[in-house]
Design the sequence.
């Protein structure tokens, strides 16, 4: 499958051939959902912590004698049923990570790329290089291309001027090709790949 290549100025720069094994799959929502869930779970800090009865500072003495009062049997005022007591079964600091097979992760990335191409949201740019690190100038270039919500994937090394100029533009993300991931692809409207990124992806999934 062939796709037109453009420059940042919007001019034609030839064509590029895309592999059907990477960009031509029928997208499966279940695989994409599994990969996104794995990514977001890995991203969670897991620093939530409630105080249990062992963490609450209150007296540990028995509240009143066991028998003769006509009231229920109680011991410590730290018990969860009392105001000021510890929380029962509250959240604790932990990792939310879970395993996902490497082959499923790789398949998820190919399905995400295929989903973007199927919806005609993939643009190939000759090279992501900016003459100056000027946000205003790059924003006008994006406006000319009609890019208001996009993920840019460059080669192994990003052009520093382009990266600095793009980082303050809302809804625009820039990543090197080794940082490409399912969540970032699907959360943005357009996927903009440099020719170097396409070649690197072809090599990666060869």
Sequence:
């Amino acid at each position: 499958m062939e796709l037109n290549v453009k420059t940042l100025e919007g001019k034609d720069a030839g064509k590029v051939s895309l592999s059907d094994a990477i960009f031509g799959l029928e997208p499966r929502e279940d695989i994409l959902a599994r990969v996104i869930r794995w990514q977001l779970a890995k991203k969670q800090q897991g620093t939530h912590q409630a105080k249990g009865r062992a963490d609450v500072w209150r007296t540990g003495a028995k509240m009143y004698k066991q028998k003769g009062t006509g009231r229920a049997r109680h011991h410590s005022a730290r018990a969860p049923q009392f105001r000021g007591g510890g929380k029962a079964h509250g959240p604790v600091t932990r990792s939310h990570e879970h395993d996902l097979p490497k082959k499923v992760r790789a398949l998820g990335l190919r399905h995400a790329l295929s989903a973007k191409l199927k919806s005609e949201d993939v643009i190939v740019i000759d090279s992501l290089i900016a003459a100056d690190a000027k946000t205003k100038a790059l924003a006008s270039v994006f406006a000319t291309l009609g890019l208001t919500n996009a993920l840019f994937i460059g080669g192994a090394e990003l052009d520093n001027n382009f990266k600095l100029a793009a980082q303050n533009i809302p809804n625009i993300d820039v990543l090197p090709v080794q940082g490409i991931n399912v969540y970032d692809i699907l959360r943005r409207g357009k996927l903009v790949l440099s020719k170097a990124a396409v070649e690197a992806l072809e090599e990666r999934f060869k």
